[in-house]
Amino acid sequence: MNYVLKSIPSRTVKPRNSGFTMAMDKGLSLREVEDFIEVSGDYVDIVKLGWATSFVTKKLREKIDIYRAADIPVYFGGTLFEAFVIRNQFDDYVRLLDEYQLSFAEVSDGSITLDHGQKCRYIETLAKQVTVLSEVGSKDAAKIIPPYKWIEQMRKELDAGAWKVIGEAREGGTVGLFRDSGEVRQGLVEEILTQIPEEQIIWEAPQKEQQVWFIKLLGSNVNLGNIAPNEIIPLETLRLGLRGDTFDFFLNL
Amino acid sequence: MNYVLKSIPSRTVKPRNSGFTMAMDKGLSLREVEDFIEVSGDYVDIVKLGWATSFVTKKLREKIDIYRAADIPVYFGGTLFEAFVIRNQFDDYVRLLDEYQLSFAEVSDGSITLDHGQKCRYIETLAKQVTVLSEVGSKDAAKIIPPYKWIEQMRKELDAGAWKVIGEAREGGTVGLFRDSGEVRQGLVEEILTQIPEEQIIWEAPQKEQQVWFIKLLGSNVNLGNIAPNEIIPLETLRLGLRGDTFDFFLNL
Amino acid sequence: MNYVLKSIPSRTVKPRNSGFTMAMDKGLSLREVEDFIEVSGDYVDIVKLGWATSFVTKKLREKIDIYRAADIPVYFGGTLFEAFVIRNQFDDYVRLLDEYQLSFAEVSDGSITLDHGQKCRYIETLAKQVTVLSEVGSKDAAKIIPPYKWIEQMRKELDAGAWKVIGEAREGGTVGLFRDSGEVRQGLVEEILTQIPEEQIIWEAPQKEQQVWFIKLLGSNVNLGNIAPNEIIPLETLRLGLRGDTFDFFLNL
């Protein structure tokens, strides 16, 4: 930190298990990745190459290498996993992870219908090779999954070997954990937290109001994901009570 | 592409006549232009320097040269044409195109009232010097042009020598083809398509939902415009059925 | 300017007292700062490092130096002043300004409750060391300050030594001068202007519609603040009547 301020909430440091921030890269250039790391490298724990953007990304290997050199692991968005699975190319996906020497992978069913037992078997298989993040929640706003189902799926996916489970929100923050308006499905989140330890969950929360809501519920060191690269610094100030939205909250503790 | 996925919709390649993407640069630095080309050069067919931003753009000539070296033609937004016309400086505009050795120009009447015969004469004149894109639709949300008028104007502008016609939407996507909410004027688009061949139209569609709508109506190789530089990669994944929004659509074909 | 257009509204040049543009940097890298200056240096009069982002900004000293070398002064957002004051660290804040050789500082009470006499004493104290910008308006949407209060506070803060007063709007443009929808509190602005000279006010107006509204009310050379770096060029075209939104307005003058 650049100067001393008293009574700043304590933050975990890398490598973090909680207070984790996952950023979404949906098409940065190599130079932009360097800039991103210069500014936000200490505050980003992992980077997702959004959905299947890696298919059309130029200099993909160089990009992954730049992140890796800064100790920031990279993984492919869950939609890519689904794109391989729906085409009966799961074996190709396994080889792809190997070819790019990735140490993380996401298993999700946001765009496809996947028997949950089968989803867990994918998690089990991949967990032998990489650290698995598994995602619960549909990208389809019409598919409302009831809370008990979220909990059951999260538990089974953790049991199958997922390192953490991700609560779905899309890039825009309007499905899964959130209503169409972006408002948090508060009852859902609270019910999940009665059953699943919070350190095992990453909440996708691209909008500032969503981040504020989770920080107020779970504190500075909540795990958050789908953060845009230029919102990492703003998020870090929210976590530290140094922006209007959470300024009062930490003072009152 | 970085790896093999089966059953990916086929995409046209540059130089494209359909499946064309027009990006809007509203003030990138030279280095940002280089980065943009690194990431998205294969997927961008032409760049518009938004409205009259070229008036205040630093190093304009160098910027145009960088794009040109990457085989991406640049043109000035239609508002600049209108700014010259309303000041009785059309001859200066012609000289300006020449001075910057531009090969494309836009003719529009989004902010001025222009007799349609006169608009067509401007198209005719400019078509002798450059490839003309002509734009139909007002930037004024209150000026609703009925479908038959859109069709009549588009046809006459193509007859006058326009290479393609552009359906207006602004940078934000809220006028012309769209309602205030950003929703597509579906009946308008469908009626236009009964009369004007789709390869001759570029649909301005800055919002993701608008892009999805046009891709679902006209397929991967619809011509789209006013795409922000950092949305070119996301758009390309939509065209390929590799993002949630169009994932199902192409699988069901 | 890159070419000659007749009847362009006249714009003040740097160093400006009116027609002033304050940009908000919420986490640019050093290279992004260089790019920003290349593109917009002539149009930006001062840069705010948003709220307390300077706490977590890497290479803070180098960043300030790059701006300074381009004759663009930098100051810390008012929330940082408040973070020091609430912790009884005002003396540390004074030393911090000195340590970074800043020539501007903001005094605000958007997130804390501060006796107005005390606020004015802070202004008085800091005005001996730096040029003070003081801000009126709460970041709390529920705290509606009536117009006569805005005026009284603005007048007292100017009397205490503030160079200009800032009308609050947050980064998003939704409190203080604006309703939740982003709409301008028109009556408030008009009443303020009956009492406070417009050159002494900087209006925070991050949204395009807000900028348009102020330009139409007060002309090209209105002082505007909280402009995102990539919106400086678009704003400059609005000031010059070279974008659809203000195109007619200046022609009709």
Automatic annotation (TrEMBL), chains A, B, C:
Entry-linked Gene3D superfamilies: Aldolase class I
A Pfam family reported for this protein in Swiss-Prot or TrEMBL: ComA
InterPro entries xref list: Aldolase_TIM (IPR013785), ComA_synth (IPR003830), ComA_synth_sf (IPR036112)
Top-level taxon of the source organism: Bacteria
Annotated family: Belongs to the phosphosulfolactate synthase family.
PANTHER family tied to this protein: PROTEIN HEAT-STRESS-ASSOCIATED 32, PTHR48413
Name the UniProt record assigns to this protein: Phosphosulfolactate synthase
Originating species: Cyclobacterium xiamenense
Lineage: Bacteria, Pseudomonadati, Bacteroidota, Cytophagia, Cytophagales
